[in-house]
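Reopening closed ticket. The problem is back. First fold of the pair:
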Amino acid sequence: MNRSSVLRSVLRSVLLLGIGFLLAIPAAGAGPGVKTLLIGGTPAGIAAKSTARLDFTSDGEMVFRCSSGEIRVSYQKVNTLEYGQSVSRRYAAAFLVSPIFLLSKARKHFVTLGYVDSEGKQQVLVFQVGKGDIRMVLAGLEARTGRRVEYQDDEARKAGGG
């Protein structure tokens, strides 16, 4: 090997390491859990339509972390789990890009979680989960709470893996 090929090899390695490092920074800063959109719920102090992280790493409770605060729910206090979808056609994309988009559907995945809070009051949280995370979230909730997920319809059952 001549000097220029060794130099190219070293530069390529440094470049790949640098790109890998830059890609890892946002993932490390995101914190534990799954990114969700907290649609709303009954607990006071939560802002509707806020981005939240659902964290399953604790043994005794799950934590929703959002900009307006934190909601902690004991797994033992969860009494209902429900999964459903909102399906719509992609009319805007069909109009702007191509009519072929009329053949596809946009799906949004929603989880409703009912639980009893520390004061003994029934509370509900509704959150939206991304397509790539929904099966993991449903399996995690079933495993941690010991409750079965109730599916709104057969389409939801297929998408949720139930």
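Second fold of the pair, where the issue appears:
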Amino acid sequence: MTGTSRKGVRALRTAAVALGLLGALASTSFAGEPAAARSACIASVFKLCPMAALAGDHDAAKACLLKNLDKAAPRCQVAVRAVLATDTTPRSPG
């Protein structure tokens, strides 16, 4: 195999792994969130919170995203704020 062919195969493998990870994260890490929020935020989570995303740690990824929401994609910011606005979970003071 030539150097160019190897690079092409390596690029295809990398893309396949990345797509697999995106699918896994979408189905597990944000499983409790609305589909629109998952779709809007998946790229931001991987960009801003890669360790939590790759670990599949929903709570850590969510906390990290909320902490870095101002750096997230505008579409993600809107989706998260919409979820937060409709969230009826009681909050503890402080």
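Update: turned out to be a display glitch only; the data is intact. The radius of gyration is 16 Å. DSSP finds five helices and no strands in the chain. Please close again.
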